[in-house]
Amino acid sequence: MIIRTISGLLGGVIVVIVLMFNGTMPFLLNCAVATVCALACYEFFSVMNLHKTAIAVVPSLIFSALLPVLGSGLVWQGAWLGYSFFMFGVVLLLTSELNFKDIAAIYSMVLLITVSLNFIVKLMDFGGEFGSFYVLYALCISWMADIGAYFWGTFFGRKKLCPSISPKKTVEGVFGGVTFSLAVSLAICFFFEWFMFDAGVRVNFHYIIPISLAGALISTVGDLAFSAIKRGCHAKDFGSIIPGHGGVLDRFDSVIFVAPFVYFMVNCFNIVKM
User: Fold this and answer.
1) Residues 174-224 pLDDT 10s
2) Cβ–Cβ contacts within 10 Å for residue 73, how many?
3) How far separated are the first and last CA of the chain, in Å rounded?
4) CB under 8 Å to 248, separation ≥6 — which residues?
5) Is 219:146 a contact under the CB 8 Å cutoff?
6) Mean pLDDT of 61-82
């Protein structure tokens, strides 16, 4: 638990540093997200035991790093067309190293991970001067739900949530995770409103509270979905790069679901009002 806590704190510090310096180095967040996408995809290939299949893995890793850097414009669309043609017009038809199920799994997961995590960059771009707040808010919903569920479930968990998928997750843990996520989300909103935003800029808590609650529940679903993938691959974690947590994908599995949700919400509602 101590190692997990220290790793989590260091990860939070890295996120804050990236957001702080993204203004002077505009592509810093893009590069960070691109790195996360590539590592997450490679970890998925590893648990599927496909990481040594270079003909599909190498172009997939290159493609997974393109969207956060190039954006969703015409260049990336061309990259997507090229990647799609290569996977199904070359790898599937002209090689015998992979079958259709493997190629479909690689293709779908690369798109899911890359497109979803790119919403972190889109939140920064959409938010303008409030971009760092939106990014931190989205990550907070996801990660605080996981932290709260872990600690609350460890000490108070009794009733299993989905024992066939994730034996350690409990109903009490979900309640603790949602509650903790909401509390920290509100704390971050108050902090930005009081100390970071210009005078007259306010956070609309009428929207923040339901969005935070829904986001924390979505985070739980995302976590369970990737737990099901790990169980199907007979793996405990996606990797071991983060001590006490597992792999990069173990940390960003719920963000894959939460980041698009928050982006959709901030486009629909004035979370920050002037």
Assistant:
1) 999 999 999 999 999 999 999 888 888 899 999 999 999 999 999 999 999
2) 8
3) 42
4) 36, 39, 40, 43, 238, 239, 241, 242
5) yes
6) 89
Strands (E), 32-187: 160-162, 166-170
pTM of the predicted structure, to 2 decimals: 0.93
pLDDT at 78 over 70: yes
Helix, strand, coil percentages in the chain from 3-state DSSP, rounded to 5 = 75, 5, 20
- Summarize pLDDT for 150-169 with one digit per residue, the tens: 888 888 888 888 888 888 88
The strand ranges marked E within the chain are 160-162, 166-170, 202-203, 272-273
Please state, in angstroms and rounded to a whole number, the distance separating the CA atoms of residues 167 and 236. 11
CA distance 253 to 247: 10
Query: Which string of DSSP letters, residue by residue, matches 177-190?
Result: HHHHHHHHHHHHHH
Rg of the chain's alpha carbons, rounded to an integer? 19
Cα 254 → chain centroid:
5
Contact 71, 52 (CB under 8 A): no
User: How many Cβ atoms sit within 10 Å of the Cβ of residue 20?
Assistant: 11
